[in-house]
Each structure stands twice: as structure tokens, then as C-alpha cells.
């Protein structure tokens, strides 16, 4: 081995790395960004679980138990309702993770030493939060009974629980809908992220530059074949995932398919934007990794967004997958209709238009 030639090759490679400023910055910032994002987002400490309150008793005793829940670090009782229908709407719309129902005659039952059970309803579509809320609720109820001088086991008031949508709190029912969304995001972004970069590296971009093709025509023309492919992959992932893992689709299959096609377009627009930014396929891959890995953690795929710091929650709100996972779980597990999904649908529509516009603006019909 000739050491001088060997040293020259090493020196050349270092020069190449440092000259590619975009890749160098990505590689330098990636471990810092991932450490901060994952460090704050990956947590099993769940606090401030939002629940609705239906107080049919409206007595000192009922207000006392509500205060016990609200003054803990575990629950927030910002929503006060007058009927079970309002509770159903709030849970279906992801406004709350559960509800506490205090029956009429609660206080008088306590005073007579009779059973005066109140109920805690939990949203089982997120079993991680439900399990924690169940433990917290039972703990607060036990402490409240002891504060009243009631010995455990005596016939008296206590907490009963009920889990909606996923009574057995099976993890598969929670993971599979989100996994379908995650798979679709990864496939569709990867499909288009290398599209324009590949043209540039092969030199065929020059033919497009001298042609009368407009930027929007080129962007849409490249996206449409991938829309067909991505939509087919979505159908495949949806039916295989729900069939193989025995996850029933409670809501409208037609609505799910339509909104799934819409998400495919949004993800493809994001991939096309990456393709207009990157100059090489290596740089495109680095940008894709920078997008895909945080989305696994921040979208609510595994960890509840509500448990993350507020800054991290705001970051999660710019990730399209966050909204599509809410749509998937809402339709597949809860069976909700479009009336509960409009916020997610409007947000995804806005994101798609913004991403497509940015991709079109960034594309220039000229050589760099």
C-alpha cells in the first residue's frame, strides 16, 4: 500500500464532504435535533388527561370529588356537560380522553352509607392513556374513600370504570391503524423524493428545461403516476393490516378510502418538495430520514402527543401524519363520521396546497 496515495484519497474525501455544505449541515445537526426531539417526546409519564364532567348531583360532595380529580397532576376537568350525548361527541372529536359521570343522589347515598358509585369512562382507542388513567382514577377514588373514613371492602361509594371503543385495551387495535398511516407516508415520500434529483443526476433535466413544459405541469405530471401507485399501496396496506390482524373497520370504509387518497397526495407533495430541494440522491435520502424518523415519534404513532412538552406538541402539528392517524383511529376504531373529522381534513388540505405550491415555486426551468 502506498501511504501517500492512501492519504491523498482520505484528504480528497474529507474535502468532498466539507464542500457539500447542505449534506454537512444535515449530518451535523441531525444528532442534535434527534436527541432533543426524542428526549422530550419519548415519555411514558402521562399527565393532564383531559376528561369531561357530567355532574347530575350538583352537591358539595360531587364538587368535592371533581376537585380531587382536577387538583391532581393526572386529570383536567375543563369540559362540563349536561348529557351523555355531549360526552360521546367530545370523545369522538378527540377533545377529551374520557369522562366522569356523577349520578343524581350521589351525596344522599353517601350520607346514608349506601352504594353511591360514580363512573369514569375512558377512550380505549388509546390503551396507553386509558391504562394510566384507570390507575390514576382508582388511586384518587381510594384516597377519597379513606378521607371519608370508609374502610376498603365496606358497602359504600366508589368508582366504577368503563372503556369505550376498545374494552380489552388491545394494543393491536391502537397500533395497526397508525401503522397503516406510517407505512403510507414512508412509501409515498420515498417514491417522489428522488424524482427530480434522478433527472438531474442523469442529465435528462436539461431536456425538460429547454422544453415548453411549465413547472406546475412537470410537478403534477410526475406526481400522478405515484398517486396511482401510492393509492394502490394504501388499499393493500389497509386491507391486509385490518384482515391479518383482525382489526374491524367500525366506520365508513368509503370515507376512509377517500381520505386515504387525499393523504397520499399530501405525502407525495412533501416528497416532491424534498426532490426540489436536494441536489443529489444522497442529500435527498438525508432529508427523507430527517422527516420520517421524527414523524414516528411525534405523530402519536406510539406516544401520546398530549404527554409531550408544549413546544414539541406544536412541532407535531406540522406533521401531516399526525392528522391522518387521528382520521384512521377515528374511523377504524370509533366509527366516527366526517362531522368529527373536518379539522383534520381541512388541515391536510391546507398542507397539501402549501407543499405543492412550494414545490412548484422551488422548481426552476434552468440549470443551477
Total separate domains? 2
Would you tell me the overall average pLDDT?
A: 82
Q: So how many helices?
A: 15
Task: Give the N-to-C terminal Cα separation.
Answer: 40 Å
Q: What string, H for helix and E for strand, traces the elements in order?
A: HHEHEHEHEHEHHHHHHHHH
What do you see in this structure?
- The protein has 15 helices and 5 strands.
- It is α/β, with parallel strands linked by helices and 368 residues long.
- The chain has 2 domains: 49-164, 3-Layer(aba) Sandwich (abc type-2 transporter like fold), CATH 3.40.1710; 171-362, no CATH class.
- Helix 2 (21-41) runs parallel beside helix 12, helix 7 (171-193) runs antiparallel to helix 10 (215-244) and helix 7 runs antiparallel to helix 14 (320-334).
- Strands 2-1-3-4-5 form a 5-stranded mixed sheet, with helices on both faces.
- The mean pLDDT is 82.
- It is elongated.
- 65% of the residues lie in helices and 8% in strands.
Brief write-up:
This protein is α/β, with parallel strands linked by helices. It is built from 15 helices and 5 strands.
Task: Give the key terms.
single chain; alpha/beta; abc type-2 transporter like fold; five-stranded mixed sheet; 15 helices; 8% strand
What's the SSE blueprint?
Layout: H1 3-19, H2 21-41, E1 49-55, H3 60-71, E2 75-80, H4 84-92, E3 98-102, H5 106-111, E4 118-123, H6 127-147, E5 159-164, H7 171-193, H8 195-202, H9 205-209, H10 215-244, H11 253-277, H12 281-298, H13 310-316, H14 320-334, H15 342-362
Parallel strand pairs: 1-2, 1-3, 4-5
Antiparallel strand pairs: 3-4
Helix pairs in contact: 2-12, 7-10, 7-11, 7-12, 7-14, 10-11, 11-14, 11-15, 14-15
Amino acid at each position: 500500500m502506498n501511504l501517500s496515495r492512501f492519504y491523498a484519497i482520505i484528504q480528497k474525501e474529507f474535502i468532498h464532504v466539507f464542500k457539500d455544505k447542505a449534506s454537512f449541515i444535515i449530518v451535523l445537526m441531525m444528532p442534535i435535533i434527534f436527541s432533543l426531539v426524542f428526549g422530550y417526546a419519548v415519555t411514558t409519564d402521562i399527565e393532564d388527561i383531559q376528561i369531561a364532567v357530567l355532574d347530575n348531583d350538583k352537591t358539595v360532595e360531587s364538587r368535592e370529588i371533581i376537585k380531587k380529580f382536577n387538583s391532581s397532576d393526572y386529570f383536567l376537568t375543563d369540559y362540563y356537560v349536561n348529557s351523555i350525548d355531549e360526552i360521546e361527541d367530545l370523545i369522538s372529536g378527540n377533545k377529551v380522553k374520557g369522562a366522569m359521570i356523577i349520578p343524581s343522589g350521589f351525596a344522599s347515598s353517601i350520607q346514608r352509607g349506601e352504594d353511591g358509585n360514580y363512573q369514569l369512562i375512558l377512550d380505549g382507542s388509546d390503551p396507553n392513556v386509558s391504562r394510566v388513567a384507570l390507575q390514576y382514577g382508582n388511586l384518587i377514588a381510594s384516597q377519597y374513600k379513606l378521607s371519608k373514613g370508609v374502610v376498603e371492602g365496606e358497602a359504600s361509594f366508589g368508582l366504577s370504570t368503563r372503556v369505550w371503543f376498545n374494552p380489552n385495551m388491545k394494543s393491536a387495535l391502537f397500533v395497526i391503524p397508525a401503522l397503516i398511516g406510517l407505512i403510507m407516508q414512508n412509501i409515498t415520500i420515498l417514491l417522489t423524493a428522488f424524482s427530480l434529483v434522478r433527472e438531474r443526476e442523469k442529465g435528462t433535466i436539461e431536456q425538460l428545461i429547454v422544453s415548453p413544459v411549465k413547472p406546475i405541469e412537470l410537478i403534477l405530471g410526475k406526481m400522478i403516476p405515484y398517486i396511482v401507485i401510492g393509492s394502490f399501496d394504501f388499499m393493500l396496506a389497509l386491507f391486509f393490516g385490518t384482515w391479518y390482524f383482525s382489526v374491524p373497520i367500525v366506520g365508513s370504509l368509503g370515507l376512509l378510502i377517500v381520505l386515504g387518497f387525499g393523504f397520499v397526495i399530501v405525502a407525495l407533495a412533501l416528497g416532491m418538495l424534498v426532490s426540489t430541494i436536494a441536489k443529489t440522491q444522497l442529500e435527498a435520502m438525508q432529508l427523507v430520514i430527517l422527516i420520517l424518523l421524527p414523524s414516528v415519534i411525534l405523530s402519536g404513532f406510539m406516544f401520546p402527543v398530549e404527554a409531550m412538552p408544549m413546544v414539541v406538541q406544536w412541532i407535531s402539528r406540522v406533521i401531516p401524519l399526525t392528522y391522518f392517524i387521528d382520521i384512521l383511529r377515528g374511523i377504524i376504531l370509533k366509527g366516527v363520521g366526517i362531522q368529527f373529522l373536518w379539522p383534520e381534513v381541512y388541515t391536510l388540505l391546507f398542507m397539501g396546497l402549501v407543499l405543492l405550491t412550494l414545490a412548484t415555486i422551488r422548481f426552476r426551468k434552468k440549470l443551477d
